[in-house]
Design a protein that fits this description.
Blueprint: H1 63-70, H2 76-102, H3 110-129, H4 132-157, H5 179-182, H6 184-206, H7 212-228, H8 239-247, H9 251-266, E1 292-297, E2 301-306, E3 312-314, E4 318-321, H10 339-345, E5 350-355, H11 367-386, E6 391-396, H12 398-413, E7 418-424, H13 442-455, E8 457-458, H14 460-468, H15 472-485, H16 494-500, E9 505-506, H17 507-519, H18 522-525, E10 529-530, E11 533-534, E12 544-549, H19 557-564, E13 571-576, E14 594-597, H20 605-611, E15 613-616, H21 620-630, E16 634-636, E17 650-651
Parallel strand pairs: 4-5, 4-6, 6-7, 7-12, 12-13
Antiparallel strand pairs: 1-2, 1-17, 2-5, 3-16, 8-9, 10-11, 13-14, 14-15
Helix pairs in contact: 2-9, 3-7, 4-6, 6-7, 9-15, 11-12, 13-17
Length: 661
């Protein structure tokens, strides 16, 4: 995505966009030159932070002066003009922020989220301070590290050998600039920040009398505060920003504030951080361009049938059910990374669900509606169009959870139209649901439900912010620094465009999902009821291909593994390399990662991983062999889309996917 900033979400690559970029003043901005961090810096205590094995070389007394001399002096006349322009643009940003408040259109929820953070951290602080001995130990640990830091900094300033007290993770791109190491002042600021944040994380981790959920939430909020307060985020404490501002006479700040005002206005009073050059992408033009037709439409879905590219195809069609939390074209980003295009090229008749981006009209559409009007409607249309009695199906993320719900319901009522199913990074057992669990408890769900009652849905920005907060340094603060302080227009990345193309959550559906899956884990317990049926995954006897991703923080590989035990039929568990997106989108032509197979998913997850076989490259061909073995019969390619009952309505990717939140 950018080089001085952390890299984009896994799997992202710059693309040669087919549409000309919008010409802006930012295009002359200097491109970054260093690689991005992959994850936040290690959160160990300062005492346990890595230290150099050898004494650092003596600092030269003239280092700071030389560094200052290396920075060009600004044109003060130009700088003063830019300061005035900066203030003008700041006024526009403030006006954009205040406009919804003045109109009574301000979005709710932010105060509740801030209150939840204060309450959670207050609970931990109360537990720590209630034990005087523990409180003294905690304060002494921080004071000792700061005294040591001051002592070592004095040595460095005097040119004597010194030992750093706290070092950043080597992958932490925030401190890549050379002056964070060579300049005693910036080195002190950097180490003070690392000491404090690691100390705060250790305090939460070791606090006695705190329940696990509160501790997890507190660690999450400390992570957010640590990311927000990093000295790299502020002009006065970031040597690279100071140098760049002097070099450009402050023009970078003017450009950045102009983009800030635009983004606050686009967010209707809230900052919608700019992550990519949205002018370079358009769904149906250079994204989601695999040829096909929409052959079915109702209130919740459009069903796309893709045009064949082989003379013969497998008789049994494939129906893909993506998550409604995101848009389906993650599986059809471009020609090189499209799972859908690849499936078509392998001789599959591919149908894909495109969920509606819901609004107030869909507030009462719950899990039953998403099953009946979503998956079952798509399966019915695919069977009618192809003349086949059954299909093989794929469910991705929450689409996979809904697929499991549907399979359990079909087993209960004797519906055999899905003969095998593939689950991509899907949880059916929410005992250990990953990092999103910090957002789920009774109080937070009630707060979300109150927000949804106002309009009938959860605003797409809320879901987008929740996912971005899982990686704040990568997805929030790196963009803040590069766009609003360096004044750089983001590079065009297809994956980040998709990531910013958020969707809303209908009230009934989202409330049911949070309560029945995350909060009470009813599907795994066999107590969930949908459409008058109590669901038992043990009655699902069809073959299941269960794909996990090793570094997935949303649907952890261990959680997916544990879910295998709930199905009654055979389960092939496969673990891909990387995370929630790149673990799935790993095309054979450009494989970046590997995958593991290890036989029946039973026993301890760690033992399965220890004995699993690692295979370099994409898991896609392995999966294709799995579904082909089940139903190898072929028929001539279905070149005419749809049928008399389900005629073609429009070209792929349809209309629902183009509705932006």
């Amino acid at each position: 995505m950018r080089r001085t900033t952390p890299r984009p979400p896994e799997g992202a690559e710059p693309i040669a966009a087919t549409r000309p970029a919008k010409k802006t003043a930012q295009k002359t901005a200097k491109k970054p030159s260093t690689k991005a961090e992959r994850k936040p810096a290690g959160m160990a205590t300062a005492a346990s932070a890595p230290k150099t094995d050898q004494k650092a070389p003596p600092a030269q007394p003239e280092v700071a002066a030389d560094s200052a001399a290396a920075s060009p002096m600004p044109d003060f006349e130009a700088l003063s003009r830019n300061v005035a322009r900066f203030v003008e643009e700041a006024g526009k940003a403030t006006a954009a922020m205040m406009r919804p408040i003045e109109r009574g259109e301000a979005k709710s929820g932010l105060a509740d989220e801030a209150g939840e953070m204060v309450k959670t951290l207050g609970q931990v602080a109360e537990k720590v301070l209630s034990d005087p001995q523990r409180a003294i130990e905690v304060q002494a640990a921080l004071a000792t590290n700061f005294m040591t830091l001051w002592s070592e900094t004095l040595k460095k300033m005097q040119g004597e050998p010194y030992t750093p007290v706290a070092q950043p993770d080597p992958k932490d791109g925030r401190f890549a600039d050379e002056q964070w190491q060579s300049n005693p002042m910036f080195d002190f600021i950097k180490q003070a920040y690392l000491i404090t944040t690691r100390w705060a994380d250790a305090v939460v981790d070791r606090a006695d009398g705190v329940d696990d959920h509160t501790r997890d939430k507190a660690k999450f909020y400390v992570k957010q505060l640590s990311g927000a307060l990093a000295p790299s985020n502020f002009l006065a404490t970031n040597p690279e920003l100071i140098r760049e501002t002097f070099r450009q006479n402050g023009d970078n700040l003017v450009r950045g504030m102009k983009m800030l005002a635009e983004d606050v206005d686009a967010g209707k009073g809230e900052l919608k951080v700019r992550m990519t050059d949205t002018e370079r992408f358009e769904v149906g033009v250079n994204m989601a361009i695999t040829p096909g037709k929409v052959v079915f439409r109702n209130d919740l879905i459009e069903l796309i049938q893709y045009a064949p590219t082989t003379e013969t195809v497998l008789a049994r069609p494939l129906v893909i059910v993506p998550p409604w939390i995101n848009k389906f074209y993650i599986l059809d980003l471009n020609q090189d990374k499209s799972f859908i295009r690849w499936c078509v090229s392998q001789g599959l008749t591919v149908f894909c669900v495109s969920w509606v981006n819901p609004d107030e009209r869909h507030r009462d559409k719950g899990f039953e509606a998403y099953m009946q009007e979503g998956i079952l409607a798509a399966v019915g249309a695919a069977c009618e169009i192809t003349g086949q009695p059954d299909v093989t199906a794929i469910g991705y993320c929450v689409g996979g959870t809904m697929m499991a719900v549907t399979l359990a319901h079909m087993a209960a009522v004797g519906d055999a139209r899905i003969s095998s199913a593939t689950l991509f990074t899907t949880q059916v057992d929410f005992t250990d649901p990953g990092e999103l669990k910090v957002f789920v408890d009774e109080e937070q769900i009630k707060s979300i439900e109150e927000q949804m009652q106002v309009r009938g849905y959860l605003d797409g920005a809320r879901m987008a912010n929740a996912f971005n907060m899982l990686r704040p340094n990568d997805l929030i603060w790196a963009n803040v620094v590069n766009v609003y302080l360096k004044g750089q227009s983001p590079f065009p990345f297809d994956l980040l465009y998709w990531n910013s193309d958020s969707t809303r959550m209908p009230e009934a559906n989202h409330s049911f999902y949070l309560r029945n899956c995350y909060l009470h884990n009813k599907l795994a317990k066999g107590t969930m009821e949908v459409a008058g049926q109590r669901l038992d995954l043990g009655k699902v006897m069809i073959p299941i291909f269960n794909l996990a991703a090793r570094e997935d923080h949303i649907a952890p590989a261990k959680s997916v593994f544990n879910g295998c035990a709930h199905f009654g039929g055979p389960v092939d568990y496969v673990m891909a390399g990387s995370g929630h997106i790149a673990g799935v989108v790993n095309p054979p032509a450009k494989p970046k990662y590997q995958f593991w197979t290890g036989g029946k998913p039973e026993g301890r997850f760690e033992d399965w991983v220890a004995r699993a076989n690692e295979t370099p490259g994409s898991w896609w061909p392995y999966w294709l062999a799995w579904i082909t073995q089940q139903a190898p019969a072929t028929v001539p390619a279905r070149v005419t889309p749809g049928s008399k009952q389900h005629p073609a309505l429009c070209d792929a990717p349809g209309t629902y996917v183009k509705v932006r939140a």
